[in-house]
TrEMBL record, chain A:
Transmembrane residue ranges: 17-36, 56-79, 91-108, 114-141, 153-177, 189-212, 224-243, 249-266, 286-308, 328-348, 397-416
Record bears the keyword Cell membrane: no
Presence of the UniProt keyword Magnesium in the record: no
Protein's recorded name: Uncharacterized protein
Lineage: Bacteria, Pseudomonadati, Pseudomonadota, Betaproteobacteria, Rhodocyclales
Keywords for the protein's UniProt record, in alphabetical order: Membrane, Transmembrane, Transmembrane helix
Native species: Rhodocyclus tenuis
Domain of life: Bacteria
TrEMBL record, chain B:
Record-annotated membrane-spanning stretches: none
Pfam families: Hemerythrin
UniProt cross-references to PANTHER family, sorted A to Z: BLL2471 PROTEIN-RELATED, DUF438 DOMAIN-CONTAINING PROTEIN
Name used for this protein in its record: Iron-sulfur cluster repair protein YtfE (RIC family)
InterPro entries, per the entry: Hemerythrin-like
Residues in Hemerythrin-like domain copies: 5-129
Cellular component GO terms held in the UniProt record: plasma membrane
UniProt superkingdom: Bacteria
Length: 452, 153
């Protein structure tokens, strides 16, 4: 695979950093919501609290980090030069951050104007970013799997936005929309067509690079993103046309593809040459394990719900012992559980781990470029020590485990999970601020050395 | 026939193994941890320096002569060799000073520099070399192998 990594083309540090520093604030907001409204949140995925929490994670935490990382990756990995990266980053960041907050507020208060305002801000932010990114990517060869998958992921993001805006229109009462059906299509495009495709495209480069593993299998790199997008399109069309059984079949194939991505990544990681599992590697393993668990759960439960009355006896007896059996019969209970596994267990964890490579490396890179001979750049461990990262990562793992149990219907664990998540996100913010502080001090020291 | 890309890429993997061996010693060795790690690091540094030297004295000049590109990809690769030499020196200094933690910090940066450099060479430069140097490839690979084993001895 041809990838041009040009460190000289890195954008100003402030462009990606603002996104990375904002993400844990949204993480803390989600955690606070879990603490305050845990019972409502875990009662059903359609409650205002659950919808607000979902969007604080996806639009607040995930989108911030993904867009921030793309501001860095597009020039460095893909060789795509963005026009005025810092100015664009400022506007996109402000629109997305304000939009995410308003969207959460809209779900919690159910006010039509808030939905419209949030939709306008998020639509503006996403479209501005996608346009700038595609413009920067124009004319670049299609021979790099990463460039190709970044383009495809941007398509996935645009489709997610389109369905999201349709839902906003429905929720604001502007026109009639079959809300649950469109919501499912919207979320699958967001999580798989955008999140999954981007994660895979980044994984092809960073998993072998940071963890010294063999490359991803060629057939997988060549076909994964296109296959996933084709299945998503088929599912969406069939579902909207009312062919629900066929739609469910394609949905299962999409879940299977996600499971295969997780399984291959886990298998590669077992072949890592590195002696010690650092915090990033532990995060990746935890994330892929969660994604695999979610895929297996989704496929199994989907088959069991479809089976209806011909379900095996053990499943029926299991349901009778569950605190909220009806939800596990109609499917909403296990969808909620899958949601916790995919959002908090897989995506948040993988991104958390990536930040622990990206941010210390960027501090080193920008410090080295700024400093003269007299002020050596701090090494990556001096920027952020492994014990601090491990402590935060383990707190996050604990939060994930508690929230998974809460999704099984143990209310008091929602409170404990919310508190643990809040602590984990606060520690993440503290770690990132510490790294940024090392950079600031280095800049001051090298300016003082230059003046002397 | 062994292509330039295959031969040089497998030497990258060899250097990766030696890099990983230093971490393994630091992680697992019970006694004499630092001297053992210093010895492992010296093997790594010798191997990667032999790789750089073979490229700078044999492969790059041959490519530059055949393609006429003197300030193209090979110039970028030479710059990156210098960056990595500096980083190897810092990592070696940290081990010599007895600080495993500073070594880990410098090595982490070195690993990223090394890997992004390898991806570029294996994905772009080596395939260009294979296209440009069809005629003398076999002899050139023999010379490179000789140069590397001479440096390692």
């Amino acid at each position: 695979m041809a990838v041009i990594l040009s460190l000289e083309q890195a954008p100003p540090f402030a462009a990606p950093l603002r996104f990375f520093l904002t993400a844990p604030l949204f993480g803390m907001a989600v955690a606070a919501l879990v603490v305050v409204s845990g019972e409502e949140l875990f009662a059903s995925r359609w409650t205002p609290a659950a919808l607000a929490a979902t969007h604080l994670i996806t639009v607040g935490f995930m989108l911030q980090i993904m867009i921030g990382a793309l501001f860095q990756l597009l020039p460095v990995v893909a060789g795509a030069q963005m026009r005025r990266p810092l100015a664009t980053a400022r506007v996109v960041h402000a629109l997305l951050a304000a939009g995410a907050l308003l969207l959460a507020a809209a779900f919690l208060t159910q006010q039509a104007q808030l939905f419209v305002l949030a939709g306008a801000l998020l639509g503006g932010g996403v479209l501005l970013f996608v346009t700038t990114a595609l413009f920067a990517l124009r004319g670049l060869g299609a021979d790099s799997a990463s460039v190709r998958d970044i383009r495809r992921a941007l398509f996935g993001l645009t489709v997610t936005l389109a369905f999201g805006l349709m839902l906003v229109g429905g929720l604001a009462g502007a026109f009639a929309v079959p809300l649950p059906q469109v919501a499912d299509i919207h979320l699958s495009w967001g999580l798989v067509g955008w999140g999954g495709v981007l994660l895979a495209g980044v994984a092809y480069v960073v998993v072998p690079m940071f963890q010294l593993t063999p490359s991803f299998p060629g057939w997988f790199e060549r076909h994964f993103s296109l296959a996933v997008l084709v299945f998503l399109i088929a599912w969406s069309v069939l579902d909207l046309a009312g062919w629900s059984l066929a739609a469910r079949l394609f949905a299962s194939v999409v879940a299977l593809a996600g499971g295969v991505l997780a399984a291959i990544t886990l298998r590669l990681q077992t072949q890592s040459k590195r002696a010690k599992l650092d915090s990033t590697q532990q995060c990746w393993r935890f994330a892929m394990g969660s994604a695999l668990a979610a895929a297996i759960l989704w496929l199994t439960m989907s088959a069991l719900v479809l089976a209806g009355d011909s379900r095996p006896a053990w499943f029926s007896s299991l349901l009778e012992e569950t605190p909220a059996p009806t939800q596990f019969v109609d499917g909403s209970g296990w969808v909620l559980l899958c949601g916790v596994l995919v959002l908090v267990g897989a995506f948040m964890t993988a991104m958390n781990g990536m930040l622990y490579k990206i941010v210390p490396f960027l501090v080193w890179l920008h410090a080295r470029n700024a400093g003269g001979r007299g002020t050596p750049a701090p090494n990556m461990r001096q920027v952020l020590g492994e014990p601090l990262m491990l402590r935060q990562a383990r707190t996050h793992f604990l939060a994930c485990a508690l929230l998974v149990l809460a999704a099984f219907g143990v209310p008091f664990l929602a409170l404990a999970g919310g508190v643990a998540l809040f602590v984990a996100q606060a520690l993440l913010l503290a770690n990132l601020l510490k790294a940024a502080g090392v950079y600031r001090r280095h800049l001051r020291a090298s300016m003082a050395a230059a003046a002397a | 026939m062994l292509s330039i890309r295959d031969f040089m890429s497998s030497d990258h993997r060899h250097c990766d193994d030696l890099f990983a061996a230093v971490e393994a010693v630091l992680e697992h060795a019970q006694a004499e941890r630092l001297p053992a790690a210093q010895a492992a690091f010296a093997s790594f540094a010798t191997a990667i320096e032999a790789h750089f030297t073979a490229e700078e004295t044999l492969l790059f000049p041959a490519f530059e002569d055949a393609s006429g590109m003197r300030f193209g990809p090979t110039a970028v690769m030479r710059d990156e060799h210098e960056q990595m030499r500096e980083q190897i020196r810092l990592a070696g200094d940290a081990l010599a000073a007895g600080s495993a933690d500073d070594y880990a910090g410098e090595a982490e940066t070195l690993l990223i520099l090394m890997q992004q450099h390898n991806v570029k060479e294996e994905g772009i430069l080596y395939p260009m070399c294979d296209r440009q140097l069809v005629a003398g490839a076999e002899r050139l690979v023999g010379q490179i192998a000789g140069c590397m084993s001479g440096a390692g001895a």
